[in-house]
């Protein structure tokens, strides 16, 4: 099993590949449907416009399925089956009288390449966790901290102290009735504001919260503190769910949050551990270097942000 | 201040940089009085360490006088003379409290990056790439020392810099290499690589009761030092057909009981031209990151049920390791970056009792400003160079 980061990167890539294959299907399908004769000539196959149009309908159906349905796996399997059909037809075309073998060979190679991508994407989709619904990001992380649960609970429950280790949170104001106001760094130097309320609070064990309507961020989360196996400190587990906000500004925020909410929680949990175990957050920002910046943008800033 | 910075393969420059400042409450600032170039620095010099950035201050073997301390520093005072261990360790996490300081969970701010390559992250190190934290190193006039209360040993006035400087790395590294062998009375220990770590491994194997030591290298002056100071028998691998065969002969067919690989990722091997070319080519094509020639020989030479200890630095993915030999012949492998903090006090006492004078490896004493030239000399083993100490 890979690390959370690897899973995160893999998931992002998977979504990109699936979207790409979806649009490819629709493009090819439209071409087959609208200009079957030209296409036949291009690939060097005998003219069979009805068959080509039927293939076009199949491609478009698969493409629409890939782009609109939450679970890509069955549609990717349909694409693999379609690829097999295409390869079979191209193979048969070699024996037809009016075929052009050189063009057929090129077309077959291209289809074989796409088939390989479809097979990989289908395998990947079958093994990965399916997304939990459109626009909702769900993830969890845990870490073992060498301190008793009481101390960790106390530290986390004191919301106003959270910006000490939460990288993107600028400040938190706690108010009556378990409510709090949050200010965090947003896209392009802006700030994000939202109110949150505690929905579950078990002393030394669990804190769960959710954002209130009308904020810039729509999310819910929980943190649990359990004794780690073998009495080796406390297992801290964070679960989070983000939903994309509505509107154009919302889309921008969603893109910003979507950059790395999962990695952000990973980083924050490690910083939380550093903070409670050592009383400081490990840093090199501000150290000496033989260049204008004290850190490396590529190797430090991007990893820690 | 002046600091030796990495700008690329074979491109070190001493530059004027800002003085270090206290950034965290457990930091101290040290005015460096002596600093050394480590064999592992040559891996960066040769461009084999990933995640280096132009302008990184390098060096992880340094000592000096404390000139400033952070608000939470309790055990170190301004004016103290200290040697700084090369791993940065918090002293509070699971691993630090088990004495496994080089595996500190809290000192590498780039742990996410190390996890991608190695599965989990070890401790941050001074001047040893951004994979290991991107901390400024100690080939400079001053250095920032995080977690100063944990990461230091105080030095009494009657000991010279040269007697104690190597407590920072190579002496404990050679010592833990020998300790990891679990030497039993009567054992023969073979040591691949007679650079400074190899020399300390040879001496430490003796301190820990080895009956005899066999040293393997190609450089005459290093083999001579192993023989004269360490009482080792020697093999110049360029003068024999096969190291494995020679060791078999020397040990009555059984193989050395304990094998130490003090070479690591950039093994040479003019006598193993085939292997060297194979590994160098795969390295160049990025199909392999390390050239494990010494490690392969350890695996084939070690006696059944023996131990291989690996203080040599490896970075990534190794090819054609005869692991079948390790499994079927019940060989134990032990390795790791050194838990230096654990050895500071006991080894300082050995120096005070005159059981060992670590300065025996020093061949060159140069000014910090001469660091680029010093790297060139050390890298190419010019002028019979074994160890360089730089004075700011």
Report what the structure shows:
In chain A, a hairpin with a 6-residue loop joins strand 6 (218-227) and strand 7 (234-243). Chain A has a seven-stranded antiparallel beta sheet with strand order 1-7-6-5-4-3-2, with helices on one face. Chain A folds into two domains: 3-127, no CATH class; 136-303, START domain (Alpha-D-Glucose-1,6-Bisphosphate, Chain A, domain 4, 2-Layer Sandwich), CATH 3.30.530.20. Chain A is elongated, with a radius of gyration of 26 Å. Chain A has nine helices and seven strands. The longest helix of chain A is centred in the first third of the chain and has 31 residues, at 4-34. Chain A is α+β, with helices and mostly antiparallel strands and 305 residues long. Helix content of chain A is 50%, strand content 20%. Chain B is of the alpha/beta class and 392 residues long. Chain B is built from 13 helices and 18 strands. Chain B has helices at 39-45, 94-97, 111-118, 161-164, 170-179, 196-207, 220-230, 243-250, 273-284, 293-301, 323-328, 340-352, 371-379; strands spanning 2-8, 11-16, 28-37, 56-57, 61-69, 81-84, 87-88, 124-125, 142-145, 153-154, 188-192, 212-217, 233-236, 258-261, 307-310, 332-335, 364-367, 388-391. In chain B, the strands form four sheets. In chain B, strands 3, 5, 6, 9, 10, 17 and 18 form a seven-stranded mixed beta sheet that branches. In chain B, strands 13-12-11-14-15-16 form a six-stranded parallel beta sheet, sandwiched between helices. Chain B has a three-stranded antiparallel beta sheet with strand order 2-1-4, with helices on one face. In chain B, helix 11 links the parallel strand 15 (307-310) and strand 16. In chain B, helix 5 crosses helix 12 and helix 6 packs parallel to helix 7. The mean pLDDT of chain B is 95. The interface between A and B is large, with 35 and 52 residues.
| Largest sheet composition of chain A | 7 strands, antiparallel
State the low-pLDDT regions of chain A, or none: 1-9, 128-134
pLDDT averaged over residues of chain A? 83
Unreliable runs of chain B: none
Radius of gyration of chain B: 20 Å
* Helical stretch tally of chain A: 9
């Amino acid at each position: 099993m890979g690390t959370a980061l690897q899973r995160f990167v893999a998931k992002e890539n998977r979504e990109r590949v699936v979207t790409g294959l979806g649009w490819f299907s629709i493009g090819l399908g439209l071409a087959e449907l609208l200009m079957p004769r030209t296409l036949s000539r291009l690939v060097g196959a005998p003219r069979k416009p009805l068959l080509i149009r039927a293939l076009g309908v199949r491609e478009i159906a698969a493409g629409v399925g890939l782009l609109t349905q939450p679970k890509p796996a069955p549609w990717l399997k349909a694409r693999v089956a379609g690829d097999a059909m295409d390869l079979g037809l191209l193979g048969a075309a070699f024996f037809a009288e009016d075929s052009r073998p050189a063009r057929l060979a090129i077309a077959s190679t291209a289809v074989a390449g796409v088939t390989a991508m479809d097979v990989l994407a289908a395998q990947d989709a079958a093994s990965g966790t399916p997304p939990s619904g459109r626009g909702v990001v769900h993830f969890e992380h845990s870490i073992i901290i060498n301190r008793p649960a009481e101390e960790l609970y106390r530290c986390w429950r004191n919301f106003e102290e959270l910006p000490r280790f939460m990288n993107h949170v600028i400040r938190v104001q706690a108010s009556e009735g378990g409510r709090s106001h949050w200010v965090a760094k947003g896209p392009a130097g802006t700030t994000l504001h939202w109110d949150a309320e505690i929905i579950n609070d078990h002393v030394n064990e669990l804190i769960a919260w959710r954002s209130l309507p009308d904020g810039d961020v729509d999310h819910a989360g929980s943190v649990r503190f359990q004794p780690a196996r073998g009495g080796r400190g406390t297992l801290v587990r964070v679960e989070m769910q983000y939903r994309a906000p509505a509107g154009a500004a919302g889309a921008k925020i969603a893109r910003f949050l979507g950059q790395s909410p999962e990695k952000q929680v990973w980083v924050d949990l490690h910083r939380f551990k550093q903070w409670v175990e050592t009383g400081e957050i490990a840093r090199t920002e501000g150290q000496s270097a033989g260049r204008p910046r004290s850190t490396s943008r590529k190797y430090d800033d991007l990893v820690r942000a | 201040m002046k600091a030796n910075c990495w700008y690329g393969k074979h491109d070190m420059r001493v530059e004027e940089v800002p003085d270090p400042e206290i950034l965290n409450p457990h930091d101290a600032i040290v005015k460096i009085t002596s600093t050394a170039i480590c064999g592992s620095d040559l891996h960066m010099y040769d461009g084999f360490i990933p995640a280096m950035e132009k302008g990184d201050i390098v060096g992880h073997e340094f000592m000096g006088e404390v000139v400033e301390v952070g608000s939470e520093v309790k055990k170190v005072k301004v004016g103290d003379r200290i040697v700084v261990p090369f791993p940065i360790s918090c002293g509070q996490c699971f691993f630090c409290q088990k004495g496994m300081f080089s595996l500190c969970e809290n000192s590498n701010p780039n742990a996410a990056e190390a996890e991608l390559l190695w599965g989990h992250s070890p401790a941050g190190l001074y001047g040893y790439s951004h994979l290991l934290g991107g901390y400024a190193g100690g080939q400079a006039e001053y250095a920032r020392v995080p977690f100063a209360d944990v990461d230091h040993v105080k030095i009494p006035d009657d000991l010279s810099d040269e007697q104690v400087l190597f407590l920072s790395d190579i002496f404990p590294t050679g010592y833990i290499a020998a300790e990891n062998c679990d030497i039993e009375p009567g054992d023969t220990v073979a040591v691949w690589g007679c650079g400074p770590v190899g020399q300390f491994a040879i001496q430490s194997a003796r301190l820990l009761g080895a009956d005899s030591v066999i040293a393997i290298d190609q450089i005459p002056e290093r083999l001579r030092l192993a023989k004269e100071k360490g009482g080792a028998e020697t093999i110049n691998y360029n003068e024999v057909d096969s190291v494995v065969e020679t060791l078999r002969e020397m040990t009555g067919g059984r193989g050395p009981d304990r094998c130490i690989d003090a070479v690591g990722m950039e093994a040479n091997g003019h006598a193993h031209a085939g292997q060297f070319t194979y590994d160098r080519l795969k390295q160049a094509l990025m199909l392999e990151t390390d050239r494990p020639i010494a490690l392969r020989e350890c695996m084939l030479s070690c006696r059944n049920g023996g131990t291989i200890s690996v203080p040599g630095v490896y970075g990534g993915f190794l090819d054609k390791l005869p692991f079948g030999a390790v499994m079927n012949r019940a060989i134990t492998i032990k390795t790791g970056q050194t838990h230096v903090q654990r050895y500071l006090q006991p080894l300082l006492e050995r120096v005070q009792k005159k059981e060992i004078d670590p300065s025996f490896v020093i061949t060159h004493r140069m000014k910090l400003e001469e660091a680029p030239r010093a790297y060139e000399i050390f890298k190419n083993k010019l002028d019979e160079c074994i160890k360089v100490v730089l004075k700011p």
